[in-house]
Amino acid sequence: HGDSRDFDEEVKSVCPFCGVGCQVSLKVKDGKVKYVEGIDGPANEGRLCVKGRFGFDYIHHPHRLTKPLIRLPDAPKGLNVDPANPFTHFREASWDEALDFAATGLAKLRDERGGKAVAGFGSAKCSNEEAYLFQRFIREGFGHNNVDHCTRLCHASSVAALMENVGSGAVTATFNEIENADVAIVIGSNPTENHPVAATYFKQFAKRGGKLIVMDPRGTALQRHAAHMLQFRPGADVSMLNAIMSVIVEEGLYDEAYVEKFTENWEDEKAHLAGYTPEKMEGICGIPADTLRAVARAFANAKAGMIFWGMGVSQHIHGTDNARCLISLALMTGNVGKPGAGLHPLRGQNNVQGASDAGLIPMFLPDYQSVTEDSIRGHFNAVWGSDKYTDGEKGLTVTEILDAVHAGQIRGMYILGENPAMSDPDVTHARQALASLDHLVVQDIFLTETANYADVVLPAAAFYEKSGTVTNTNRQVQMGRPAVPPPGEAREDWAITVDLARRVGLDWTFTDPSQVFAEMKQGMKSLDNITWDRLQSEGAVTYPSLSPEDPGQPIVFADGFPRKDGRARFAPAEVIQPAEQPDADYPMIMTTGRQLEHWHTGSMTRRSKVLDAVEPQANCSLHPSTLRRLGVDPGGKVKLQTRRGEITLLARADRAVAPDMVFVPFAYVEAAANILTNPALDPYGKIPEFKFAAVRVVAA
Ligand code: SF4
């Protein structure tokens, strides 16, 4: 990648991909990022994965949006545009014309049909300041809470369970704390692909003798380092976890003093677990009773244990129950609030923690303050110098918003940096909703699949082209800095939102993201002692930070929880089957996820030369025996069909996938996995069941 003389300038920033939040040094020459190196950030200590190291060049891709675009009259909406000439259905416009057009359309719907005719999707790819401004734009500009972002598709159920039972949605300990643990559970997570730098710490933990317990229906590379690999039946998480906890109760392995001092509802939990012995559950979860007992003893007898989880836990209709079980397991063993212990949902997007903290969710204002409390809404109205944010009803979530579009209740949307035309479950339904809107404003760096449905497209700066803070999975607030200017007339997201806000009648005067950060501090105690200047000079501060000198607390809740009487709560969980069971027509199970080289809907990584060269084609993974049964050679084509639609793609042989399963990455528009996925929702987190759908697989 060149040598140290091969650049003019070096800029420190944060990787824009995953929630690990690796700090990077961007080597810049002639206005372009030439290469990237890891630096000594608190989460990565110099390490980077392939995405952080080689996936930066999408920012210089020729398809970047460089001018505002307005849809041509009568141009069809949708994906059927010429891929070689994606801009056919738009004309270029000046910023003034595009902003006027965008804002007038939204304001007209508000004024004629009421504020709830307009909803917004913000983005976990933007900075904290941009997420904050986006939720303020909808709440102040349109008076209600119908604003959400992709946390809904990711860890919403984990946050629901954590808020309910621990009183806080963030991790209780950084992932780096694993170095002080004796045992660690990694469940429903494939960190070597999805949080690769975090995975290096997990491997080091195992190499120095830590007991790693991996639980996943699909085999993972991490299992090579594991003391126990529990490849349980898809969707059987609750039965397996309840069985493990029942052993801890039955054999008296729980931490009685901790339970007595810091928890509530223990008697109910104990009574509930009595019905879940390993001998009863082994037939349901597919893990032998002896193994369940061994794992229970290993976790409960360790001095300190951590629990890490990912989308495999959260993306189920019982995702909140899955997370409730993990919380209960940590509580009964006293594994919260001390070194080497804790609950850690590995956050996906680079700023999904920060965007959620900043209030980009329909039920909470910044810092998870309830939208239903008059006094809290009053506080934000006062901070905003406004009386326009009036609605005390919890807003609609991502999928509910698109349902409301179908129902004709929502007629206009402002979508910033999200790609629901690829990311939503049953994406045909989502695309139909987008096509039916009267007015769609999309702000992005590329003409994404979603932008193909827009009436107006506003060209935005990529992360390496702007200033702003982001918060990683470890609660570390970090400073992102611009290394190169945005291409053409593209502008920073916060500045575009400010201009739109002024045009829908809001008195916004921000001229710099530092001013937004200062306003956020007026409503977010989590940012106490963290200032823009500190972040500029220190690069990162973990919240909570207890003083202007404190780098922040890696472990929280040593002295109790932010709940009534300082006690966390046991929430017994019943077994709920996945919403769609395999049957004679659709006999196999489909699950979706990411691959190491591609990020989410592919808008960035499929435009990154190195990453796209490694994984250029839509593919799925099947067990070799399944391929033999289908008469398909590895590398041949298969057709996947569910009750929602069908896709055709290449088949890869993979022994890690059970014979009755197919794993489908969701980054490929030419065979979009979400055409197939089930939109059934977890009732608490409102997260779709991306991890389980009944599917038919045939040779194509
Ligand atoms: Fe970027 Fe995540 Fe890879 Fe770190 S682990 S370099 S944050 S994608």
Polypeptide structure, described:
This protein is an alpha/beta fold. Helix content is 30%, strand content 19%. The chain contains 23 helices and 30 strands. The protein has a seven-stranded mixed β-sheet, with helices on both faces. It has a six-stranded mixed β-sheet with strand order 24-26-25-30-23-27. Strands 10-9-8-12-13 form a five-stranded parallel β-sheet, with helices on both faces. Strand 28 and strand 29 form a beta hairpin. Helix 3 (128-142) runs parallel beside helix 19 (493-503) and helix 16 (398-406) packs across helix 18. The protein is globular. It starts with 8 loop residues before the first strand and ends with a strand. The structure holds iron/sulfur cluster.
What structural class do the secondary elements suggest? alpha/beta
Annotation field: number of helices: 23
Associated small molecules: iron/sulfur cluster
What number is the mean pLDDT? 96
Give me the side-by-side strand order of the main sheet.
Answer: 5-4-18-17-16-6-7
Radius of gyration: 24 Å
Poorly predicted spans: none
Number of strands: 30
Distance between the termini: 41 Å
* Helix content class: 25-40%
- What oligomeric state do the depicted chains represent? single chain
Shape: globular
- Sheet with the most strands? 7 strands, mixed
- Strand percentage, roughly? 15-25%
Family: In the C-terminal section; belongs to the prokaryotic molybdopterin-containing oxidoreductase family.
Protein name: Formate dehydrogenase subunit alpha
Organism: Thalassovita aquimarina
Keywords: 4Fe-4S, Iron, Iron-sulfur, Metal-binding, Oxidoreductase, Repeat
